[in-house]
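Backbone-to-sequence.
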């Protein structure tokens, strides 16, 4: 009887991950880290850490009429390409940060957190690491 309950629980858990519209634990929070390799230096983004501190929609914004989402959550680079491809006007870099204007997803959040007294990356080199 105990074995039957364990098997039934396994079917429910595995089956739930396979039903369209449901998300597994990995899919709901995304990958633990994401590595970007821009010319300025490799950025290892701690996605898992950020996912615990902020709502997904803080970065993964709602669908836009000019470029509807193909899934509930998508990689930023699926829409924000470098260079941007019509109908998009924002490159991946500019979606994260526009250094001239000091704004963008990363800049805005880091400024807000710094104003709240938290320690956050404040310079380019804090995120962009060049290999020797």
């Amino acid at each position: 009887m105990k074995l039957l309950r364990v098997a039934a629980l396994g079917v429910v858990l595995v089956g739930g991950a396979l039903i369209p519209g449901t998300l597994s634990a990995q899919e709901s929070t995304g990958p633990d880290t994401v590595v970007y390799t821009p010319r300025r230096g490799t950025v290892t983004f701690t996605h898992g850490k950020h996912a615990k501190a902020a709502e997904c929609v803080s970065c993964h914004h709602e669908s836009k009429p000019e470029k509807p989402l193909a899934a509930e959550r998508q990689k930023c680079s699926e829409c924000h390409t470098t260079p941007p491809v019509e109908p998009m006007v924002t490159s991946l870099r500019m979606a994260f940060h526009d250094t001239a204007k000091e704004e963008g997803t990363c800049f805005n959040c880091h400024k807000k957190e710094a104003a709240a007294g938290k320690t956050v990356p404040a310079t380019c080199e804090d995120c962009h690491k060049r290999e020797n």
